Amino acid sequence: MAQHDKKAIVIGAGMAGILAGIKLKEAGFAEVAIYEKADRIGGTWRENTYPGLTCDVPSHHYTYTFERNPDWTRHLSPGAEIQAYFEHVVKKYDLEELLHFNQQATSAEFIDGRWQLTFSDGHTDSADILIAATGVLHKPRFPDIEGLGSFQGDCFHSARWDHSVSVEGKRIGVIGNGSTGVQIISALAGTAAKIEHYVRHPQWIMPVENGHFSAAERASFQDPEVLHEAMQFEIYNSGVERYTMAIVDMESEGAREMGDICRNNLEQSVSDPELRERLRPDHAPLCYRLIFSPDYYQAIQHPNAALVTEGIERIEANGIRTRDGELHELDIIVLATGFHPDTFMRPMSFKGRNGANLDTLWADGPRAHLAVTLPEFPNFFMLNGPNGPVGNFSLIDIAEHQWSYIAQFIDKLVTGEADEISPSISAMQRFETEREAAAKETVWFKGGCNSWYLDHRGIPASWPWTYSRFVQEMSAPVWQDFECVKRSA
Ligand code: NAP
């Protein structure tokens, strides 16, 4: 697209912020600034470095569509390779000059047709268009366990892994059994002197292979056509659709099939009947985000590993005291206890037009029209924003679809067809009412578990429809839902 004099600011330099930077440059913006609170790019893949960190989306599908990577070493990529991939993308697309590190946005306000921002160091900047690419799961959730601060050993959250602490030969307790806790147990079972997994609610485990790509395979993938063929789009896309259908309808064929695979995995992988029962979830498969693991059941049966389902009474100087009175002596406690999923770009003061304030708009929880735009916050767009699709599929793909939608607003703004675009309040309310009703039909709501998908009212805060509906919604804005203001010259 031709150059124009508009400026855009992106908050966040993770996967979605990098995408936005590339696309804004392509769209001819005279100036693009990407502000990042940390000292390097990467988002999730920068923050999480725990042993065993692996993406459960097939490697070749976990890339931008315009920048495939023939060099992945494994079917499911280790976190460090993903971080390296994003660093490569930043270099290749010349984004370094757009990046501003150690700059946390503290306020944003729409004044006289422009977004005015302030950062933690007092620096200010302004732009015509503002993009929030701040990620979903970035604020660690620390458990409310008595005595947490009294532990004399090493204790850290999974997203703040302390690599100065050696795990070899140590007695380790891992609290939490989402994908993170499961991956850590699998990685450390053979290394630790003892590893205990503290589990309140066992989860269903989907078996998955995670082999290496051979040198010959990687060489062949240098040919884009060979790689395209190997990616088996038809199978992958129908799998994503089937998965989202299984969320929407827990009686669907796909839900039954996935449930059966998980049940068989438990039956066939765990030989001790007593351990098997302690590992058996009491909720419907897919109620939590499904855990894919090639080796958790093997790891928890390792002679050095133990499953602890007795509740935690408190943490003491030397370890964890369970409710049966036993003290489990430990050197390291890992808190794989998840994240606060409702933070998004907060904490920051966010003010739109006509006195609109994000704190008021989100008083009852984060919401947005189709997860992307906010009424009275003109020319502001979110990638992976509230109530968008989050599940066992690529969030890069989700962000790219959102970008193709956002690009259509940006097009109107840069061509001067409109100066301010935002959805009407009624459009967002209608969307939210429909979304909440649909969310109450999903397995997240009906499946009998209390996952991080549920908001403070117990309503799933996620996209409650199929992937194909999301793609269709993102294909073009419904313009009558938007207020397009043209200021007089
Ligand atoms: P999570 O799924 O939210 O799991 C947190 C775990 O901590 C749960 O097992 C929870 O138990 C437990 N917990 C929380 N507070 C506790 C307390 N006070 N006492 C005992 N246990 C407590 O967090 P996560 O594993 O970090 O994963 C976050 C999201 O990222 C998940 O959706 C996960 O699937 C995803 N993820 C994806 C990948 C990938 O490969 N793409 C990798 C890692 C994570 P209860 O269930 O009993 O509350």
From TrEMBL:
InterPro entries linked to this entry: FAD-bind_Monooxygenase_sf (IPR051209), FAD/NAD-bd_sf (IPR036188)
Taxonomic superkingdom: Bacteria
PANTHER family recorded: FAD_NAD(P)-BINDING DOMAIN-CONTAINING PROTEIN-RELATED, L-ORNITHINE N(5)-MONOOXYGENASE-RELATED
Protein name as it appears in the record: NAD(P)/FAD-dependent oxidoreductase
